[in-house]
Every structure is written in C-alpha cells, then in structure tokens.
User: Fold FAS1 domain-containing protein from Exophiala mesophila.
Amino acid sequence: MLRRAIALSATLATAALAQSHGPFTDLVSVLNGTHGFSSINAFMEYYPKLRDSLNELKNVTVLLPKDTAVWEFIEDPRYAALEAAGEDALDALLRYHFIDGVHDNITDWVQYHTLLTSPEYTGVTGGQVVFGYNNDHGFEKSFYGGADLSASAGSEPILFDGGIVYPVDNVLTIPTKLEEEVEAVANETAFVQALQSAGLLEEVQALTDVTYFVPNNTAFQLVQDSLSELSAEELADVLKYHIVQGTILYYSTFKDGVTLKTLQGDDVTITINAEEYTGFVNGALFTWSDMPVANGVVIIIDNVLNPSVTDGPADSAVEEGVAAWPTNAIPTTTDDSAAAATTSEEAAAYTGAAPSMHKVGTVSIAAMIAMVAFAVAL
Assistant:
C-alpha cells in the first residue's frame, strides 16, 4: 500500500511543481512547498499522527531524503524490513534523521545527537548519533550512520521556523547491535564470538553508553595460544577489560593521557599523538574509530589488551601497536584473517566513495586531511 502511495506521489509531482523557497513555517510546509520531497511527503501523509508529531519539533536539523533517495530505498531490502516492522520502526528511522539543534555550519568531523532516544533502538544517552562533516572537494555536507551508509547534502539548507532541512541523497540506517554491526561493516567476528562463548554478549549489548575496544581477527589469532591457557573466568575478565561503560569515546573527544575504567575494574590509558595522528589504548593501536553501534561506539584495535600489561607505546608516532601477550606464529591466510588485513584500498571502505573517516592501516590521517576528508588515522 505504502509503495503504491509513493509511486503515485512521484507521478503527481511532475504535475504540481511547488515553489523551491520559503519562507516556511513548519516541516509540512517545507514538504508541500519544495520540489523533490513528494515521496517522503507520502510517508508522512500515510501516517498522519507521526507527521503531526514530527511537525511540532523545534530547534532541529532535518536530514530529509529526496525523491531519488526514497525511490532507491524502496528497492532496497531495508525497505521490506521497515514495512514489516510497522509504524514504530518508521518513527524511529525518521527520528534518526532529526538532529538535535540547528547546525548550519558543519565543518570538521563530529558526532551529532539525533532525536532517536527510544531504548528499543538505542542505548546512547541524549539520542543515537550521526556523524557529519563538510567535504570541501565535493562542496557538500556528508552524514554517516550505521551499516556503512552515508547521505550527502549538496545544497544549502532550507530554513523553516523549527530549524533547517538538508535535502540528502540517501536514507541512513540506525546502528544495530555490536554483533551485527562489526561483522557487517568490518567483518571482525572474533571478539563477538569470544563474548558469546564467555556468556557475556547479551549482557554487554544491554549496557548503555559503551565504548568497545575490539581487537581485529588477526590480533586474536596471534595470541590464541596465550588465551587458551586462561580459565573461563580469566578470559571473561580479559574481554571485560576491552569494554568501558559510561563514556563513549568518539574521535572528537580523544584526549592524550585520559584513563578509563573498564568493566573488568582496571583502567586503560589513551595515548594520542596529535602531530602524527595516531592513537592507542594502552599499547594497542587504533585502526578504526567512530563505528556506531546501538549502545555506543566501536574502536577497532590491532592487539588484544592484557589487564596485567598496561604499558603504552614506546613511540606514539608509529603505526603499529605493541603486543601485550606472547604471540604465536603468524597465522596462515584464512577468510577472516584476509578480511582483517588492513590495506590502503580497505582504508576507504567504511565511507564508500569518500576517503575514510575511520579505518586506516598504512594510510596516514595527515594524507587524508590533505584530501580534505576528516579522517581518523589511528
């Protein structure tokens, strides 16, 4: 039914082109008075209570998918899942496109809290986040959410009394649980499998405001002999040492020398080299940051942490971490280890066509900043 309504709206749009400028009093007037929003308007008309609720919001920045974005979305498997989930899921998805506050001067890479606050979908205090930055090369604003998807706004925002609207070229995806996000986005499965085996996965995914330091698959393979000597309780403590609750460590909040208390009870120490754009937790190098998950953020690291070996890097300028465990022989290539290997080509994978904001290996953040993408080369 809704698919047909959207299709009809697309047909009618060519026969009733509305003005492309304001002034606009509310969001509905933007939808009705701006060419290119007929499909999202059909969504709103189909759910009048939802439309009226969103229309009352003030002091917001709205990422509003254009018609072409919606048409592509309805051919995507995400749409079928959305229709099956019903109005509550649509409400959540739309609220994930409403940023708290008016942000008309987006420059550097930073997180923005959205109006998605339902505990069914997020465990982030203040609302789940999207990341935004200004791509000077493309003369556009870009926004990033879950599932390695981004949406770009190539035009100036539309003003209305309740805030501003950025017409965007994609429908963002709400970040999912740790187990789904790290596998789908980064193909890093070892940490999740270890949590599952230890009976910790459901517990940690139910926490709020979490930072996960997730060792890549190769890191686990390199120390599997050492980890195999631990008792179940000791291994559980090691895994908890990779999880911080109560502090979400986004890139924009990185500070050198900060200590964070882990679920295991001991602290980890963050080392940031601002000149070389490298970052470490204890001696493990950040290789990917700002990967949003339902209850916080993931930082991929290149070594498994050890609560008994907390030394930082001898040289914070290097792009390789320090092993905290005795290592076994370098593993032979497997599907997981091959996927976990970081190359310059993979470095751009997280953000698609845009230079990487998050994942790097031999590619330095300085080079990416030179390319104008605000990168986390850690």
Remarks:
- The chain has two domains: 27-168, 178-301.
- The chain has a mean pLDDT of 85.
- The chain is about 30% helix and 20% strand.
- The first strand starts at residue 60 and ends at 65.
